[in-house]
Amino acid sequence: MSDTPSAKLTRRGFLRSVGLLSGGLAASATPLARGADTPALRVGLLLPRPESDPGLGERLLAGVRLGIREASRTGPELRLDLVRDSVAGTPSALASAAGRMLERDRPDILVALVGTAALEGLIPLLEKHRLPLLGLTAGTDQPGEIRPHPLVFLNSLGMWEACWALGQWSAGRLGQRAMLACSFYESGFDHPEAFRLGFAEAGGTVMEQRVFDVPGRPDTLGSFLEAVERERPGLVAACCSGEPAAHFALRWQRSGLSGQVPLVGSAGLVEEPPAGRAAALSSGAWSALSWSPALDLPENRSFVNQYVASEHHLPDAFAVLGFETGVALSRAWAEARGAWPVPESLRAALARSSFQSPRGRWSFDPTTRISRTPLYLRRGHGSDTRGHSVEAELPVPGMSAERLAVLRPGPRTGWIDTYLCV
Q1: How many Å apart are CA 71 and CA 163, to the nearest integer?
Q2: Rounded to two decimals, what is the model's pTM?
Q3: Before 233, cis peptide (omega within 30)?
Q4: Contact between 394 and 288 (Cβ < 8 Å)
């Protein structure tokens, strides 16, 4: 399916592989003749189609289109040809769809929502076609297992860093004793453990950690809330999203603990969901992420207004990833379109990308090729149409080898699947 904007432009298994190749694919760029028209940049978009959130791919696409339009409004006239396909959430399905697209449509770059296992499946295809990938990710797993590859760039929401920063903030501001509840789905990723480690790094102790919403198992949330009532910790942390987050928020409010014990959690606890999905929006709960629709930046206000005017609902964080991707591709193409081969010149231009996005200053880390943005402390407001307010900017944790190593105690189910795509 081809889309040319007039923008002048399972659940989880185990055993993640760690063997991403990192050999250099250097090639020098050769200038094109300036007199000839430069062809459009052909972008292969592999859009997710998860059963749990069938509109996810469309929100990403809407963000990409807005990003391309924004870049063309403030920069040179360009044309980007979007060739897109919808893909099921498994890594094998993504690799198969990518292979078909590369043979059939010959894009200059691939864009896809990816996890670690999905990256492993795409690397051989990228190397065969000498093609760059701009992967979009929630950032629920730290990058210690992903060796930087010259063909791979990742635009990340930074969820594990946000949870680490939230843990540090919570220990310093709310209390030194915490109890942690984590949905079965979220327990397969690194961000719940990142919260615990950030909390401990700031002097806190997690007294108890409970997994709830386990398929086929008795409910454990009731006994957890009873233990909170009995122990009265300094705070409770909840790592959950979607239906489990809505379930937790409802049980929390009914327990009478709301307003008695501070509540913090991963982004999904106070996130305004897409239309038709249950909201958590736990009033008074604290969370952290790299973006909020309430973030008071001119670029964010403009993005939110444009998105609402176009799509008639508030954007989510994945729409922001799409928007930034559209801007980054457009800016890189504006710089690289006079050089050949296109994938090599585009890759070099992407590595230098830096601009003000709806999240703040956006760029790629020169070592990991993962996007860098600020992190923000947010607080939920159950009656607020935008779900939460932004309270402060949080320090971004560094990625030292020692800090990343402690997040690897053993295999997790989430190592095989892409977050929110199954």
Answers
A1: 32
A2: 0.86
A3: no
A4: yes
